[in-house]
Each structure stands twice: as structure tokens, then as C-alpha cells.
Design goal:
Length: 332
């Protein structure tokens, strides 16, 4: 009887976890696919770098985090913004260039921010949020000396960002000062149109990072549960005083073009067998199949409603007033 009870509790927990991860991943995908549909109408005022195919990494990273932990990213930031609980209405309004957007309509898709949910502003300039994230980690380390509560920062970036000098400068600084920061490289093997084998002399990225005295893990398995478990354990360790940073390299794959709403499979720069392999391992389809039909339908309906609300919010919102151009340019 007791065994049965334990199994039921585990089952309940798993179903809850599956539903939560499915909903987040599916919301990211469907929100972005809706952007792809709207894009040609010119309602969206900025370029969009979609994460379709990569959703499970963002969700595995953000699910174990506390609201006051921080996540940073570069321009391909929709997935981490949504996964960390960023406001959907403000995100859509930002893409529409409206004053109710998360950056008052002045920044667009590449600069999503929501500090109430621990989403540090993103940047179009590759790699530049990595040192800024370390700055936040330093501040959090100093604050924890008084509060006893160690918040953590997760700095997310693409494989291209690891080619920037500021990446290595930050690794050194973070390791030297044992900062509470987790570095996560979303390695989709592409920087715009250039595959990794044409850019890197060796693919031993973890070995390079390890020379800074930072523990590293390479994740090739797309299993979102395993990835989430790893992130959860790692973040708990980083919260301990004097633990210092960790680096995780997650293999993933971008299904659509570098920037814009279409696929680019006829452009001859990517290996389509690789794309098909990733598609067969799609975590959204996998988790969807693990849910009963009624639950999946309920979650899908909630997502449809959330996206519709965000679109209506963005459409009805006004464009920024001309004076807005001069606000937040200099510190007052
Ligand atoms: C400092 C800097 N150099 C070059 C660029 C041009 N650029 C834009 S996106 C990109 C590729 C970056 O690839 P990666 O970091 O792997 O991210 P992904 O697009 O795969 O998410 C480059 C080189 C830039 N925006 N900033």
C-alpha cells in the first residue's frame, strides 16, 4: 500500500513537471511561429532571431531558477525571456515597437528585458552580455555576504560568442573571484551561415574553458529532463559560498534561418541530415505524447489564448511619443 502511494506521488510529480515543461517549450515555439506568420505584415518593427528547435535548452535552464536569479542572453533571446516568465504582452508590444513594450518600444526583439522576473537586457552585439552578467554575479556575491541568500546568474550565449575576447576575459575574472555564475553555451554549430568546422581549429570547447579552472560539462543528449536535472544540481552547487562558476555546453539545433521567419534549407550551408536527426528528437513532440489528450488540449488552449491576448495588447497599444527618444539616453 505504502509503495503504491509513493508511486502515485512520483507519478503526480512527473505529470506536473511534464506539463510545466511542455507548456513553456510549446509556448515559445507557438509564439515564434505566430511571429513568423505576422512578420510579412510589417507589424513587427525589428528583425527576429527565432529559437525554433532550441526551446528545450532555455526551459531546462530557467525551470530550476528562482524568480530573483538572473538570466542573460544575446539577440536570440525570445526563448529565455519566455522560459524565465517574462511578460508576454510586453514582449509582443516591444516587437511591435509600442510604448507598452518591455523596453518602451525602443529596443525590439534583440533587447528583451524584464528585471522583475530576473531577465537581464539582451544585446545584438555578440558576447557583450557575458561580462555584464559577471558584473551582476559580483554584485550578488557581495550582497549575499549581508543577506546570506546567494542568488545566481546564468549567462547564455551561442557558440559564436565563445570566439569573442570578452568571453575569455570573463571566464578568468569569474573563476578568480569564484563568482556565482553558470555559463551556458547553446551550441547550434552555426554562426549566421558558417558551420563550426569552418571556424574552430578544434571543437574541444570544454577543454579550453577548463584551463581557467572552471568545471565543465558537455551535454549532447537533447533530453530536457536530464538537462534540467543537471542545471538544477549545478545551480545548487553554485549557490554554495566559494564554489565559483561552472560551464555547460549544450548541443542544440536551429531549424529556421539565422534571422527572419523562414527556413533556409535551400541555401546549402547546413547538413540537412543533421537537421532531420534533431527534428526526430524534438522534445515538444516527445513531452506532448507523454501527456493525456485532455491535459495537452487544455495546455494548448491556454497557449492559444495567451498569444491572442498578447497580440491584441500590442495592436491596441500606442507608439511611443516623440519625447521618448530622449528618455533613458543619459542617467539623470
Ligand atoms: C561583436 C559582433 N561581431 C559580429 C556580429 C555579427 N553577428 C551577428 S550574429 C553572429 C553569429 C553569432 O552566432 P552565435 O553566437 O553562435 O549565436 P546564434 O546565432 O547561433 O544563436 C554574428 C557574427 C555581431 N553582431 N557582434
Amino acid at each position: 500500500m505504502q509503495d503504491l502511494y509513493i508511486i502515485r506521488i512520483q507519478d503526480m510529480y512527473n505529470q506536473e513537471l511534464i506539463a510545466r515543461l511542455y507548456k513553456r517549450m510549446s509556448l515559445i515555439r507557438r509564439f515564434e511561429l505566430r511571429l513568423a506568420e505576422i512578420y510579412h505584415t510589417d507589424a513587427i518593427k525589428s528583425p527576429v532571431h527565432l529559437s525554433v528547435g532550441q526551446e528545450s535548452v532555455a526551459v531546462a535552464i530557467c525551470d530550476p531558477l528562482e524568480c530573483d536569479d538572473l538570466v542573460s542572453n544575446t539577440y536570440r533571446c525570445h526563448a529565455t525571456y519566455i522560459a524565465k516568465g517574462g511578460d508576454l504582452n510586453e514582449m509582443m508590444a516591444e516587437l511591435y515597437g509600442k510604448s507598452t513594450g518591455c523596453a518602451a518600444g525602443k529596443a525590439g526583439s534583440m533587447h528583451l528585458v524584464d528585471m522583475r522576473r530576473g531577465i537581464m537586457g539582451a544585446s545584438a552585439v555578440v558576447g557583450t552580455t557575458i561580462p555584464v552578467a559577471a558584473g551582476y554575479a559580483l554584485a550578488m556575491q557581495m550582497q549575499a555576504r549581508n543577506s546570506g541568500h546567494q542568488r545566481v546568474v546564468v549567462s547564455v550565449f551561442g557558440d559564436g560568442a565563445t570566439e569573442e575576447g570578452c568571453f575569455y576575459e570573463t571566464l578568468n575574472f569569474a573563476s578568480l573571484h569564484k563568482l556565482p555564475i553558470l555559463f551556458v553555451c547553446e551550441n547550434n554549430r552555426l554562426a549566421i551561415h558558417t558551420p563550426i568546422e569552418k571556424r574552430w581549429a578544434t571543437e574541444r570547447l570544454c577543454e579550453r574553458v577548463a584551463t581557467f579552472g572552471i568545471p565543465t560539462v558537455k551535454v549532447d543528449d537533447p533530453d530536457v529532463f536530464k538537462m534540467r536535472e543537471l542545471i538544477s544540481d549545478t545551480v545548487s552547487k553554485i549557490r554554495q559560498p566559494n564554489h565559483g562558476p561552472v560551464f555547460i555546453e549544450c548541443s542544440t539545433y536551429r531549424w529556421l534561418e539565422h534571422v527572419g521567419p523562414r527556413d533556409d534549407h535551400s541555401d546549402n550551408y547546413r547538413d540537412l541530415d543533421e537537421y532531420r536527426r534533431w527534428k526526430e528528437n524534438d522534445q515538444i513532440a516527445r513531452l506532448g505524447a507523454m501527456l493525456d489528450d485532455a491535459t495537452r488540449q487544455r495546455l494548448d488552449d491556454e497557449i492559444t489564448a495567451d498569444i491572442k491576448t498578447a497580440e491584441e495588447f500590442a495592436e491596441k497599444s500606442p507608439y511611443p511619443a516623440a519625447e521618448e527618444l530622449y528618455r533613458n539616453v543619459y542617467a539623470s
